[in-house]
Specification:
The complex is a heterodimer of chains A (385) and B (339). Chain A is built from 16 helices and one strand. In chain A, helix 6 runs antiparallel to helix 7 and helix 11 packs across helix 13. The longest helix of chain A has 31 residues. The relative contact order of chain A is 0.09. Chain B is an alpha/beta fold. Chain B starts with a helix and ends in a 29-residue tail after the last helix. Chain B has two domains: 207 residues, 3-Layer(aba) Sandwich (D-Maltodextrin-Binding Protein, domain 2); 96 residues, 3-Layer(aba) Sandwich (D-Maltodextrin-Binding Protein, domain 2), CATH 3.40.190.10. The relative contact order of chain B is 0.14. The radius of gyration of chain B is 22 Å and the shape is globular. The chains are: A mainly alpha (385), B alpha/beta (339). Chains A and B meet through helix 5, helix 8, helix 9, helix 10 and strand 1 of A and helix 1, strand 1, strand 3, strand 5 and helix 4 of B. Strand 1 of chain A pairs antiparallel with strand 1 of chain B, so a sheet runs across the interface. Chain B: This is Amino-acid ABC transporter-binding protein YhdW. Chain B: Keywords: Signal, Transport. Chain B: Belongs to the bacterial solute-binding protein 3 family.
Chain lengths: 385, 339
């Protein structure tokens, strides 16, 4: 069989070059991104167009109100009245500018306000120390945030006559100062307390378990607003006549216990997700209960529940506005008092006040959620393959 | 767990501060504390508003300052405790505040069943109407068939119904949940008239797109005598609150003002001499010193000055004296003689 030459003659030999293939559809650049993410199909295209239409409807009036037509300077209501200035007036930022000290400090005595500023500084140091994951001596940072800062902060704000700091009654505290105090107390108290309650609820000891279950279910079963009313309206009637509890302290304790109960359930969710083998493994290494919790179980459990914890912190931060209805002058309450000032009575002043509040809360809550995302991504790095 | 409970108990215990003892008289308690605690309004135009630095100003605030002036000769010795409408009476009953000065209507049920006393009326308020000028309405009696903006579930709504029924007029209620919404609706033309307490009408009018397009009608359809309140059972303290107000009225009547009070001290007019304590021992009868009223006028002013400064012509509100004028000028403010 001489198939060889025949087969050879049938073999295909390309004699000319292949025509160039058309260039690939854009894979990089803004146009490609838009095509892949915004117009990848008829459904997506429709949604994109809808979103654009909504933005086109909402953004220009908002921009006009907040920036273009807004009044930034002025000494009184005349600056923000359309019938005086002769053109439409948007947000009256002059009002916010004039009242800003009140919004930040409330009625805190003017000559003592440096103490509030130091408090803000101490809080920033503590938060930065604990949140910056590569910060040096973070163990010391935790001690600072959970022990030293609350004590120092209280001494600073309330005053210690022995140290030359005049007493400032809490009735004078107000504004962002109170909002931060209430939410920091809630956050600082609720995390450790919540972890202890969660551990207690899973304890082998029936009495401990019972106490924790009752505590958690009680505080979860009543609305926060009821707790606050109870604290500020009912409690004074129950106490003997010569005993009064500070007006700010009452809702503070209420909020701390309330958020601790929620935190306990979040942490318990994380604990339940950890396989039993982890505890058993820790025990077989000779670790005690607390050691195994601290070194093995909690680090894993807490990482799982970071979204839940942050969610709860954000909710707590916004819930602090509820203290305003029991007469605590938090940030929102200062806006509500200031907006009735007849010297600043103008059509847009109320809206401006609330827009300012929205901005304030948004910045803080958005910051918290972005930070949580960053931490999650970083702690989950070991799991990514 | 035990440690948590112990820690909580400790925390609660530590926060319990002993307040002023209830057994002693209110005045002795105030002197011992070194300051007056005043239940104030958390924000009402002209009556209790924080200024840019958070210091309280207003008619009700000035009344507390007058009390502090009478007791301490120092208007800074006050702690204002802003109270919501809900917790104001509890705060007074429980001794948290010495006096409640926050536009509280004096009514029989409050006077008799809450354990309170209302020593003197420092502002006669009442529900009124505001309409757009272009309607050409000059009296509430012409409001037949009008739509009226009002706040839901308030006595305002009930008063409105009573008034229109009594005058055999038809009307249509347009009710809203909050005061802000109600006024916005009126201002944007949803209804012909807007109703709330007269002092509130003047405050809201300022927020209108064009304040001058709106007028407040002369009719007042309800009685809202706003008075400071004290706990029942301490007559001496109630006397101090009552006579502080009367002294400010008498000073206005006698022409004693913040500016001329020092000259007036040398006056020969026996009325003036008795008010300012250069004659008689009237202050001692209250448990204060005889120049108590002099200090009130010197540091705060007479009633007319306080009125004009906070709600009258000296303020953006520009409320007319009306029924709050002195009795000698056709109003209801009548100070019994200091004699």
């Amino acid at each position: 069989m001489s198939a060889g030459p025949q087969a050879l003659s049938l073999s295909f030999i390309r004699r000319e070059t292949v025509p160039a293939a058309p260039p690939p559809v854009l894979v990089s650049g803004p146009l490609a991104w838009a095509r892949a993410n915004l117009f990848s199909g008829p459904g997506n295209t429709l949604l994109t167009l809808l979103a654009l239409a909504i933005l086109a409807l909402a953004v220009p009036p908002l921009a006009r109100f907040l920036v273009i037509d807004a009044v930034f300077t002025g000494a009184n209501r005349d600056a923000c009245r359309p019938d005086v200035v002769g053109h439409p007036v948007g947000a009256c930022w002059a009002f916010v500018a004039q009242k800003i000290n009140y919004f930040v400090y409330g009625s805190y005595p003017i000559e003592e306000r440096w103490r509030a500023n130091v408090f803000f500084g101490l809080a920033a140091v503590g938060i930065g120390w604990l949140l910056w994951l590569d910060a040096p001596r973070r163990g010391l940072g935790a001690l600072y945030v959970f022990v030293i800062f609350p004590l120092a902060g209280y001494a600073l704000l309330a005053g210690v006559p022995a140290l030359g700091l005049a007493k400032v009654p809490t009735a004078l505290w107000g504004g962002m100062l109170v909002t931060l105090v209430v939410s920091l107390v809630g956050i600082v108290a609720s995390l450790p307390l919540g972890i202890l309650l969660a551990l207690g609820r899973r304890s082998q000891l029936p009495l401990v378990r019972l106490v924790c279950v009752i505590f958690i279910e009680f505080w979860r079963g009543v609305p926060l607003i009821t707790v606050l009313f109870m604290a500020n309206v009912m409690l004074p009637l129950f106490l003997p006549g010569d005993v009064t509890v500070d007006r700010l302290m009452r809702p503070l304790v209420g909020i701390a216990l309330f958020s601790a109960a929620y935190m306990a359930e979040i942490v318990r969710g994380g604990l339940q997700a950890i396989p039993r083998g982890q505890t058993e493994g820790a025990a077989s290494l000779g670790l005690s209960y607390w050691q195994s919790m601290r070194l093995v179980v909690l680090p894993q459990a807490l990482r799982i529940v970071i979204p839940g914890i942050v969610n709860s912190f954000i909710a707590l931060f916004k819930d602090t506005t509820l203290v305003s209805i029991v007469g605590i002058f938090d940030f929102i309450r200062t806006i509500e008092s200031a907006r009735v000032d007849p010297n600043w009575a103008a059509p847009t002043v109320v809206t401006t006040g609330y827009a300012f509040a929205a901005l304030f809360y948004f910045v803080f809550c958005f910051g918290m959620s972005r930070y949580a995302l960053y931490v999650e991504r970083r702690l989950a790095a070991g799991q990514r393959r | 767990m035990k440690t948590i409970v112990a820690a909580l108990t400790l925390a609660l215990g530590a926060s319990v501060l002993s307040g002023a003892a209830q057994a002693q008289s209110t005045l002795a308690g105030i002197k011992q504390k070194g300051f007056l605690t005043c239940g104030s309004n958390p924000g009402l135009a002209g009556f209790g508003v924080p200024d840019a630095q958070g210091r309280w100003t207003g008619l009700d605030v000035d009344f507390c300052k007058a009390l502090a002036a009478a007791i301490f000769n120092d208007t800074s010795k006050i702690r204002f405790i802003p109270l919501s409408a809900k917790d104001r009476f509890t705060a007074l009953q429980s001794g948290e505040v010495d006096v409640l000065s926050r536009n509280t209507t004096w009514s029989m049920s409050r006077d008799t069943s809450l354990g309170l006393d209302f020593p003197a009326v420092n502002f006669y308020d009442g529900q009124g109407f505001m309409v757009k000028k272009k309607l050409g309405v000059t009296s509430a009696k012409q409001l037949d068939g009008a739509s009226v903006c009002t706040q839901q579930g308030t006595t305002t709504e009930l008063n409105l119904a009573d008034y229109f029924r009594a005058n055999k007029m038809k009307y249509e209620v347009v009710a809203f949940a909050t005061a802000d919404e109600t006024f916005k609706a009126y201002d944007s033309g949803r209804c012909d008239a807007f109703t709330t307490d007269a002092s509130g009408l003047y405050a809201e009018r300022l927020r209108a797109a064009n304040p001058d397009d709106n007028i407040v009608l002369p009719e007042i359809i309800s009685k809202e005598p706003l008075a400071p309140a004290v706990r029942h059972g301490d007559s001496q303290w109630a006397d101090i609150v009552r006579w502080t107000h009367f002294a400010m009225l008498n000073a206005e009547e006698a022409g004693v003002t913040q500016a001329n009070v020092d000259q007036m001290k040398g006056s020969d007019n026996p009325d003036v001499r008795r008010i300012l304590g250069t004659e008689g021992k009237f202050g001692e009868g209250l448990g204060l010193t005889n120049d108590w009223a002099y200090r009130v006028i010197k540091l705060v002013g007479n009633y007319g000055e306080v009125f004009e400064r906070n709600v009258g012509q000296g303020s953006p509100l520009k409320i007319q004296r009306g029924v709050n004028a002195l009795w000698s000028k056709g109003g209801l403010q009548y100070g019994p003689p200091i004699r």
